[in-house]
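Q: Structure for this?
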Amino acid sequence: VTPLPIRFVLLETSHPGNIGAVARAMKNMALADLVLVKPLRFPDPEATARASGADDVLARARVVDTLAEALEGCSLVFATTARERDSWYRVVDARSAARRIVTEARPRPGAQGPAPAVAVLFGTERTGLTNEQLMSAHALLRIPANPAYESLNLGMAVQLIAYEIFVARAETEAAPPAARDVPLASPADMERLFAHLQEVMEEADFRDRTQSGTHLMQRIRRFLNRAELDGNEVNILRGILTAVQNRRRVAGGTRG
Amino acid sequence: VTPLPIRFVLLETSHPGNIGAVARAMKNMALADLVLVKPLRFPDPEATARASGADDVLARARVVDTLAEALEGCSLVFATTARERDSWYRVVDARSAARRIVTEARPRPGAQGPAPAVAVLFGTERTGLTNEQLMSAHALLRIPANPAYESLNLGMAVQLIAYEIFVARAETEAAPPAARDVPLASPADMERLFAHLQEVMEEADFRDRTQSGTHLMQRIRRFLNRAELDGNEVNILRGILTAVQNRRRVAGGTRG
């Protein structure tokens, strides 16, 4: 089975044993792209011991300092969560998310070069992902579990999602891949869009009475991420922002 | 969630840590009936440590000497296997097996006393179930996995099957609709948003070289609809548009 471009990103993992268990769980389900953002201890003999036979996945795991680096070359981003509902993000159960991930990651007929990766984010063992980290995600992925005892071990969560991806892949291999004409905007494109929008808001002296500037930008980020914009759509929005700025600058210039 | 009468039977488990992980995995998915046939070491501090919060499942686990004792009071029995095909047994994938298990374990209307338990058997970490042990099963349960690296950790296998049972159970029970804190923006609100955006684009003299105005607005409508905006989010966008307009009008007014 050729691995699909599906990247699992572990953020600030505390226990190296868990990283080993994750490598094994991924390999069991034919996944190989593991990125570690600031792991507490890695490499570590405990990770190697728990990987048992998945040392190749462990050896190729990349260690980076920021989530942004981890998401380089990615398109769709899911963040794992224990929340059943969320006011800001779409919450998708693991099974539906897996189908979406596979559809997105499969090679498109006639496409040049490798497809951008789909990323799944996993937070720390104790506290999961921070609100800031969630801000990079298009949607949240939730594993259904016992409401009275939901705290899944990190390795188990990875195993379940990897399994759903494996099953979804088997299901869709018969069917042709869905065509997407234009790839999703990259996380870096989205960052530039948010920065541009903020600039325009500042130039227009836009203030929201009900919330602070940071809070407002966060809300905007969330709902624009939810839209899963492709590259052209980001360009349209950037074009509108530039047009608005030029107009104002011309007007201002003439005035002065 | 009331646990259904579904029993997980571990045969001659070598590592007590795995027994703890199994208890946790079961509790995560609302299962509680664990039976251990001749475990190498149990009870054991390693089991307790790995159970983390599922000590109740561990405390109630029964230790017995034979598979026959473990299966007392059971009806349907599945044996876990890595085989894809088998000459003797029906091999059922984890998902289909879970549906069957739940159907079998649910209380029947008008039935007297507790329903007999459905059992799932798990062999030793190294060699799985013996042919003799398989002989007690009605069918084999197989977890789909990477053919190049199928050896699932015992805890992971339990987690996957417990999860499939949990999902199958949820599927068969009617779910109430999800609550939403802030209602979705109405279609009329969305229309006003689109009209406002178009106005600003015209005032800014925004043109897209690649597509006609109608086509462009259609694209924008599609991706904003995809975001499933609520009323507050539409208000934020309208506020930004108004701020941009006021600024430009003031600038234009001074100029004229």
